[in-house]
Structures are given as structure tokens and as C-alpha cells.
Design a protein that fits this description.
Blueprint: H1 2-27, H2 42-48, H3 53-67, H4 72-78, H5 83-109, H6 113-134, H7 151-154, H8 157-160, H9 162-182, H10 187-213, E1 219-226, H11 240-258, E2 263-265, E3 272-274, H12 279-292, E4 295-304, E5 307-315, E6 322-325, E7 345-348, E8 351-355, H13 367-372, E9 377-383, H14 389-403, E10 406-412, E11 415-419, E12 425-430, E13 437-444, H15 451-455, H16 458-482
Length: 483
């Protein structure tokens, strides 16, 4: 009998691992199928309530490790990291997941179902926030990014940032698991817990639907340009090569302005400019702005020996060339570049535009600071790795929802993407779609104030507080049992 029970538990563990791993594999990562993440943790949660603690822990760790194999090639081949680095990153995440599962398990089995309801969410949000403030990759690993296409749910980011989205995303399957567990011994309580989980999701979606229905105004015609055929795997050398490239981009920019473009964004690191020797390249794009009145943003590596900057040069009619220096660098590829520390805000009639570069949009700052400054449109040169073009390009979309601005992002080896402050992608073209890929769309440019912009990472701290409460509850229940 004991042997049969052990065999049954082993089969249940394997099934839970396969189901959760499969849903994580396809529901998260570079091209996620977002509905899967709403149920990805459910098999492990259900198994944890029917098994010993060590079996639940092992099942959780194995499921998470297997589910993140979808990023093995990206980490080891695209980013050039070692296999041991991948193991270290995702084993840590798996241990955090197992800790959340075990805290959920002990609370529910000892009668504290309401504390158990938010246990996994609190553990995981705390882990995401700690990684966000300690990692050079910011919030890029958050489960919230799996939901970027679920627009009503995405609106929650305007209040809580990604932390509230992750919390609710894990709260829902937890409520179902508790409801299933309690349905025989306490049907009324099971219905209450499950009802709260479903009710929270319903309230979030109602809020999101209402927010999406609010009309937007002050439209700007934005043009984007990129060419994967022009130094797509390197930065163009200074001198004649960079001048030739700028001349080609200036020609395409003039075509877009002839079609009505008011602002044009080009990728980062198009070429190298030297301090005191950038007049020739600057003149090519400055002449377009002088003729048309359009604003142009183009990325370069600017050398002011011995210092190098990842810089966006900004050309405005009747004004000297302005600059923005990238704040967040991608290690190890940009470890030789000096980070910037200041915002660049471009005042326009009834509007403000801001400038950031690529990886800056993986972080709450400088995006939140631009939001606080009242910016309604962010102009973002970028450079992706082909395979992550959609995933990394769309991370920026959440910054717009959080901080109330539209985003025009032009990337080499990725996409030309324009999104509004509700996270709707209003235009997108692959950078490889033509010798010079271009995009011309109208996008709202009026700033909208958000709770997240005003309050910051308040929900992450709420998650930490709930985790502390859940741990204290667990210790209280344990001492009662031992007493």
C-alpha cells in the first residue's frame, strides 16, 4: 500500500513538473503565449498540498529549471554567457519559487488559507524587486512582461508598476489551488478564497478596460529609420564611413519629412564621432531639420578621449546640437562606456519630449523621472540581437504605461516600434524588412499622470510587508503546534 502511494505521488510529481515547465516554457520568455502564465504554477501548487514538503520543493525547483530552458540559447549563444551563469541565475529563481511554494503549503495546511493566498505572490515579487535593484538588467526578468499583449491587465502597471501585475498573475492560480483543496472539507471557505482571487482579477480588468476607453489627444507624426545592412553587427568607423552612413540616413529622413514626419528616430551607435570633429556628420542631419523643422534623434558612440559615451545626438531647427548619454549599459558589451546622469527634455508647444537609449527602458529610472517631468513622447534609439527584437523592444512599452507617455523606438537588429501610453502598439516594422526600413505613424504625445509615476515602487514594498506578515504567521502557527 505504501509502495503504491509512493508510486502515485511520483507520477503526480512528474505530471506537475511537465505541466508547469511546459507552461513556463511557452508562456514566458522571448515570445510568450500570455494565457499560459495564468495557470503555469497551478500544477505545482496543487501537488504541494498533497505531498511532503521535500517533494514539493524538488518538484518546484525542477519545474522552474526546465521551464526556463527556453532562454538557454539566448543566454549562452546570443549574450555569450557561460552555461554555469545560466544555471546560477535560474537555480536562484527556482529556489525562490520553491520557497514561495513551501510557504504557501505550510500556511494552507495549517489553516491559514488567507495568508497562504498571497504567500507565493509576496515571495516572488520580493525576489523580482531585489533582482531589479541589484542586477545590471533591471526588471527585464519580471513575469509581468509575459502579459504585454493582454492590454486590459497591462493597465495595472499605471498604478503598481510590474510588481502588481506579477502579484495578481500568481494570486489567481493560488486562489484556485486553495479552492480545490478546501472544496471537500470547507466548501464555503473554498468558494470565498477562490472568489477573492477571481474578483481581484475582474476588478483589475474592469479598471484596464475603462482606462483603454479614455480618448487621447495631441497627435504627433513620428518617423523611424533603420538599416540592418549598414554595419548591423558593428559600429561604423569614424571619418568617411560614418559620414557616408549619416548621408544615407539624412536622405531617408528627408523622405519621411516630405511625408509629414515631425520627429525622426534612428538607432543607437550608428557610428563614431570624435569630440571637436563632429561638424561634418552633424551638418547632414542638421540641414534636414533646418529645411523641414523636424526634430531628429540619432545614436552614436561619442569619443572625448579617454572617455567614450553611448550618446544620442538631437537635432532641432534653430538650435545647437543637444545630447543625451545612455545611463544603463549592457555588460560586458558596453563596459568601456561612461554612463550618463542627466535627462534631456525637449519642450514643444503644449508638449514635452524626452530621450533615452535602449537598455535605459529596462529600468524604472530614468523613465519615471521623465514621467514626473511631464514628458508625453519618448524618443529611443536601440540595438537588439535579432532573436530578442520583439521581447526587448516591447519591454519599453511598459515604461510608457507606468509613466504616461508614448514611445518611438528605432532599433537595429530588431523592430521599429511606436506605442502609446496605454501600451497599444500603433505601428511596428522589422528592421530587416528593407535596405532602409522606415515607419511613419501618428501617435498621441500628451502626457498622462499615473499613480505609479507619483508613488513609485510602493507595491513592491507592500509585497515585502506581506511576505514578512506571512512568515510571522507561519512561525506563530508552528509555535502553536509545538506548544
Amino acid at each position: 500500500m505504501a509502495s503504491a502511494l509512493s508510486y502515485r505521488r511520483l507520477v503526480e510529481s512528474v505530471l506537475a513538473i511537465v505541466a508547469t515547465a511546459a507552461m513556463f516554457y511557452f508562456g514566458n520568455g522571448l515570445d510568450p503565449l500570455w494565457p499560459l502564465m495564468w495557470f503555469a504554477t497551478l500544477p505545482v501548487l496543487l501537488f504541494a498540498l498533497r505531498s511532503q514538503w521535500w517533494a514539493a520543493a524538488v518538484t518546484a525547483v525542477v519545474a522552474m529549471m526546465l521551464g526556463n530552458l527556453n532562454l538557454w540559447s539566448y543566454f549562452t549563444k546570443t549574450l555569450g554567457m557561460s552555461g554555469s551563469a545560466w544555471v546560477g541565475i535560474f537555480f536562484t529563481a527556482s529556489v525562490v519559487f520553491a520557497a514561495g511554494i513551501l510557504l504557501f503549503r505550510v500556511l494552507v495546511l495549517r489553516g491559514a488559507a488567507w495568508s497562504g493566498l498571497f504567500a507565493l505572490s509576496a515571495v516572488w515579487v520580493t525576489g523580482e524587486y531585489v533582482r531589479n535593484v541589484t542586477s545590471p538588467h533591471g526588471s527585464a526578468g519580471s513575469l509581468a512582461y509575459s502579459q504585454l499583449k493582454f492590454l486590459p491587465f497591462l493597465q495595472l502597471a499605471s498604478i503598481t508598476g510590474p510588481w502588481g501585475m506579477t502579484f495578481v498573475l500568481l494570486l489567481f492560480p493560488t486562489a484556485i489551488a486553495i479552492g480545490v483543496h478546501l472544496r471537500q472539507i470547507s466548501p464555503k471557505r473554498a468558494l470565498q478564497v477562490a472568489g477573492v482571487g477571481v474578483g481581484v482579477v475582474a476588478a483589475v480588468l474592469v479598471f484596464g478596460s475603462v482606462r483603454l476607453a479614455i480618448p487621447q489627444t495631441q497627435v504627433v507624426k513620428v518617423g523611424l529609420i533603420t538599416s540592418d545592412e549598414k554595419a548591423n553587427d558593428r559600429v561604423t568607423d569614424p571619418g568617411p564611413d560614418t559620414e557616408r552612413l549619416f548621408r544615407d540616413y539624412a536622405r531617408e529622413a528627408k523622405r519621411l519629412t516630405d511625408d509629414g514626419a515631425q520627429v525622426i528616430v534612428m538607432p543607437e551607435k550608428l557610428g563614431v564621432t570624435l569630440e571637436g570633429k563632429a561638424a561634418a556628420t552633424d551638418a547632414m542631419l542638421q540641414s534636414v531639420t533646418t529645411q523641414t523643422g523636424a526634430t531628429i534623434v540619432a545614436g552614436v558612440v561619442h569619443v572625448d578621449a579617454p572617455v567614450k559615451y553611448n550618446e544620442a545626438r538631437i537635432y532641432v531647427a534653430g538650435s545647437a546640437v543637444q545630447r543625451y548619454d545612455k545611463e544603463h549599459m549592457l555588460p560586458p558589451f558596453e563596459s568601456n562606456l561612461k554612463p550618463g546622469t542627466t535627462l534631456t527634455v525637449l519642450p514643444r508647444p503644449q508638449q514635452k519630449w524626452g530621450v533615452a537609449i535602449c537598455k535605459d527602458m529596462d529600468f524604472a529610472s530614468p523613465a519615471r523621472l521623465y514621467g514626473q517631468a511631464g514628458v508625453g513622447l519618448m524618443l529611443v534609439p536601440g540595438w537588439d540581437f535579432v532573436v530578442d527584437g520583439s521581447w526587448h523592444g516591447h519591454i519599453a512599452v511598459m515604461r510608457g504605461v507606468e509613466d504616461g507617455f508614448s514611445i518611438a523606438r528605432a532599433a537595429k537588429n530588431g523592430f521599429l516600434t511606436v506605442s502609446d501610453d496605454r501600451g497599444r502598439v500603433v505601428g511596428e516594422v522589422s528592421s530587416s524588412s528593407a535596405s532602409f526600413a522606415t515607419l511613419l505613424v501618428d501617435v498621441p504625445a500628451a502626457h498622462s499622470w499615473t499613480a505609479y509615476q507619483l508613488l513609485g515602487d510602493w507595491f513592491a514594498w507592500l509585497g515585502i510587508a506581506l511576505l514578512v506578515f506571512a512568515i510571522m504567521q507561519m512561525l506563530r502557527l508552528r509555535s502553536r503546534v509545538q506548544g
